[in-house]
Amino acid sequence: MPAIAFPPAIFVSVLLFFSVAATTTSLPSDDTSTLSFKCAQTFDCGPFKNLSNPFTDTTHPENCGTPEFRLSYDNDSPKLTIASLSYQVLLLDQAARTMTLARSDLWNTTCPKQYTNSTLEPSGFTYTTDNEDLTIFFGCSSGLPATLLIGFIAVLFENVRGEILVG
């Protein structure tokens, strides 16, 4: 049986096609390298400087970092939105991996018209053995029996009288 002979031009064209196809599929795209560069850039957010992963902000692409750690800056206050609740970031120490948050809806009023649970899921946050659940009512009626309330006088924000509900 005679061997099939391909004209050299066709053989070279096929070889060149497969070489180019293999090379272009193995090279990183500009979009991927640009995204990696943008995600790796540090940023400032109010008083917090040179922040990096896992934090991101609104100047970074949406797919950089974890959504729970996307900071926004509103009225001179850094904020995080977690499970549709906004929190003001009061302290942030990336080296110690700690932060102090305050619910934005409770910042100017301690008796909201609508009560919302603010449980932080452990997926992005770790609690220590020092953490306990505590509900605090300041200057408003909790609607609970007095036997469940422990009264105290708190020297907070101009001597506000408050009550703690433990549970």
UniProtKB/TrEMBL annotation:
One of its GO terms (molecular function) is polysaccharide binding. One of its GO terms (cellular component) is membrane. The keyword Ribonucleoprotein does not apply. It holds the Pfam family GUB_WAK_bind. It is a single-pass membrane protein. Residues 39-103 form the Wall-associated receptor kinase galacturonan-binding domain. It is found in: Membrane. Its main location: membrane. The chain crosses the membrane at residues 136-157. Residues 1-22 form the signal peptide. Keywords: Membrane, Signal, Transmembrane, Transmembrane helix. InterPro entries: WAK_GUB. It comes from the Eukaryota. This is Wall-associated receptor kinase galacturonan-binding domain-containing protein. It comes from Carpinus fangiana.
